[in-house]
Design goal:
Layout: H1 46-57, H2 68-73, H3 82-90, H4 96-108, H5 113-124, H6 130-142, H7 154-162, H8 167-178, H9 184-197, H10 201-213, H11 223-233, H12 237-249, H13 254-265, H14 271-283, H15 293-321, H16 325-332, H17 340-349
Length: 350
């Protein structure tokens, strides 16, 4: 068209400063062949490099912080515990977000699930706004302030009757078991063996339960290991009682102590006496020696007896051959301090 510059599309009007071959949208001063958006003075191909640098300089979006359930289940939706579902349905609470929060707390503390849900069930009974009250209690759980209900455990009741435990001991054991849902079975088995072998049953039960609740003990001591040692070395009644006391006193490392004690008693002529001898040391937190001293003493005595018998034979031989001090020194050895008296006697004879 008239007035159009070479390279322009039909219908385009020339702008002041445009050169032939420039594309629409190009700025004055740009060279032909440059793309719109490029700055004057830029070489073709530099625009892509500039765009890549700008993209790399952009800050990366912050990664979403994963909570407990994200770590456990990854990107999958965590499964809602069936007891949590039943609890929410019973109280007519249809808040999915609240249900997930409660489920997360139950998943993190499975040992107390029954205790927590039982307590919540009692609290929400006949509550006008169960959802609002539950949200408040879930917040307490998240802050570590919520305490579940102490359950009446039938197995504990049976133990209390069998061993005539006090009411205080029964309450403390129920409290312990209520917080040990996944370990209840092993706790009851070990507890029964402990009560069978100890004299102060109620005091022992209270002490062990409190240590578990305070986090000082991860598990109750296994008296089965102590019983194996008793049978293997045929310990008498007094030694058995003392061994039980040691296991209860050293409950946190009783397996290690019993293992070392078994090795130690292998070399003892009277294992029951050895247990009685070490009782105070072990109760005070001391360790079992590497080897029984009686064995070392016996070995030393045997060595001394053999050495003296050898010396006597050699002296008699010297007397029979010639009472010569130099000869005696050669036979006996000048460094033998034990035979020094006999050497002097030989020299006197010479």
């Amino acid at each position: 068209m008239p007035g159009m510059m070479p390279g322009m599309m039909p219908g385009m009007m020339p702008r002041p400063g445009m050169m032939p071959g420039m594309m629409p949208g190009m700025m004055p001063g740009m060279m032909p062949g440059m793309m719109p958006g490029m700055m004057p003075g830029m070489m073709p191909g530099m625009l892509n490099l500039l765009q890549q640098q700008q993209a790399a300089a952009k800050p990366k979006p912050a990664e979403e912080k994963k909570d407990f359930l994200n770590l456990k289940f990854g990107d999958r939706e965590p499964v809602i515990d069936r007891d949590v579902k039943a609890f929410m349905a019973k109280h007519g609470i249809e808040d999915d977000a609240l249900c997930k929060r409660l489920n997360e707390e139950i998943t993190k503390h499975r040992d107390t699930k029954e205790s927590v849900l039982t307590k919540l069930d009692e609290l929400l009974d006949d509550m006008g706004d169960p959802a609002g009250y539950l949200e408040m209690k879930v917040e307490e759980m998240e802050n570590g302030e919520f305490v579940g209900k102490t359950l009446e455990v039938p197995e504990v009741d049976a133990l209390a009757k069998e061993w005539n435990l006090t009411h205080e001991a029964k309450i403390k054991l129920n409290e312990m078991v209520s917080n040990r849902g996944t370990k209840k079975g092993s706790d009851i088995v070990r507890l029964e063996k402990i009560l069978e072998m100890t004299q102060q049953k109620s005091e022992t039960a209270i002490n062990l339960a409190q240590q578990i609740l305070d986090g000082k003990l991860e598990d109750l001591p296994d008296m089965g290991e102590a019983e194996d040692v008793m049978k293997k070395f045929k310990l008498d009644d007094e030694a058995r009682r003392k061994l039980v006391q040691v296991v209860l006193q050293r409950a946190d490392d009783s397996s290690r102590v019993l293992g070392r004690l078994e090795v130690y008693l292998e070399s003892a002529r009277k294992p029951s006496d050895a247990v009685r001898t070490m009782f105070g040391r072990l109760m005070a937190g001391g360790d079992v020696p590497d080897e029984h001293k009686e064995k070392e003493d016996k070995k030393d005595k045997d060595d001394d007896r053999d050495r003296h018998e050898t010396v006597d034979v050699e002296i008699e031989t010297v007397d029979a051959v010639a009472p010569d001090p130099a000869r005696a020194a050669v036979v006996l050895g000048p460094g033998d301090a034990e035979a020094s008296g006999d050497m002097e006697r030989l020299w006197a004879v010479g």
